[in-house]
Amino acid sequence: MGAWTRMKNAFTRSAQIASAEDLLAASRDRRTGTGVHVTADTAMRHSAVWACLRLRADLVSTMPVDVYRKVNGIQVEVAKPPVLVTPGGVRVGIKEWLYSSQVDLDRSGNVFGIITERSGVIGPDGRGLPARIDLVALADVTVRATGSEITKYVIGGREYEPWEIWHEKQYTVAGVPLGLSPVAYAAWTIEESLNAQQFARDWFAGGAVPMAELKNTAKTIDKPQAKIAKDEFKAAVANGDLFVHGNDWEYKPIQAVASQSAFIEARQYGLSDIARYFGCPGDMIDAAVSGSSITYASITQRNLQFLIMHLGPAVGRREDAFTRGLTPGPRFVKFNSDALLRMDPEARARTIAAQITSRTLTPSEARAIDDRAPLTEEQYAEFDRLFGARTAPPTTAATGVAS
């Protein structure tokens, strides 16, 4: 918000079509290169921006949010507070809330919400922990700060104290109380791609270049005469009628040539460049550059690489924020990433079998993973008939005693 306002004045137009097209009028009064004004909202018109935000928010919002505490050094799950079930009230569940807040974090580096309800559990600041957080639009928020400390939030014209507002941030730098906005820093790249997109739209709609040229080959005409000829020509051809003229007028349609479509390359390059700004591998949003290929041994390996290198750090920061601000000590919040790391059936079966063989997992625990009840005696008997009787485990006798 405020950070974007300060930074946008430093931006200059970076998207220019370095060819004759840049000299043609897009709407008869302006150049094609005047471009699209890039904001957090207009940036989402770009398919790569939308795909990156959607992918990250989809994955984060579908991870189960669990609360634990340590008991004798073992992590034990405990009941979640209501704010981690329906953080925005009964109509806004945790998945929707996480999706919306992750989109704001990834495009603007900040997310804001008004704490409208508090629980009876006292937090570290001496106040009740938040029980409901209503997210607000980034455009409605103004932040007042002294140095690196935020003193007031202004939302919809009303002032709020810092303790009344839920504020998460990412992409931080020392001394700045707000997170940096990827949209602001990627504005040049996004603008270039959106300008190419706009140029393509205007080109094929006939707005960026004249559809044809009407030339008098016999004499030079002034502007009034040119306007009369133009109006008469348009009136004749607008409804498909015939245009009758002598041998002094020449009609020449204008067609694009291959070299005038170089903007396509700029658009293709912009996809991967934008993906880097928003922390998404290009191939995961179908933006892989032609001629490049990345091969992974399995889907699990690919998902693991994405979690470790791109999504994991953002998830870790959100876990810390929820632990500090939404749960009483010594409880802590964890996002369950197992949903992201789902293996293919064959690899999953091999992994579970290896854990059973190494005695780190019992068959009953393995069945519970698949939501199956422990084996019954009847099932054990059937296995014995099919694969032979079970071998009794060896006994260990005391020294000097016959076993």
Commentary on this structure:
With 403 residues, this protein is an alpha+beta fold. Helices cover 37% and strands 17% of the residues. It is built from eleven helices and eleven strands. The chain has helices at 2-8, 47-62, 94-108, 182-185, 187-205, 223-237, 263-277, 299-326, 345-357, 363-369, 377-387; strands at 65-71, 74-78, 110-122, 128-135, 141-146, 149-155, 158-160, 165-169, 212-216, 249-253, 332-335. The strands form four sheets. Strands 2-1-11 form a three-stranded antiparallel β-sheet. Strand 1 (65-71) and strand 2 (74-78) form a beta hairpin. Helix 2 crosses helix 3 (94-108). The radius of gyration is 32 Å and the shape is flat. 22% of the residues are buried. Residues 1-33 and 254-260 have low confidence and may be disordered.
Tell me the structural class: alpha+beta
Low-confidence stretches: 1-33, 254-260
- The total beta strand count reads 11
Strand content range = 15-25%
Biggest sheet layout? 3 strands, antiparallel
Helix content: 25-40%
Spatial separation of the terminal alpha carbons: 78 Å
| Gyration radius from CA atoms, angstroms | 32 Å
The helix count comes to 11
Envelope shape: flat
Order of helices and strands: HHEEHEEEEEEHHEHEHHEHHH
How are the strands of the biggest sheet laid out side by side?
A: 2-1-11
Write down the overall mean pLDDT.
78
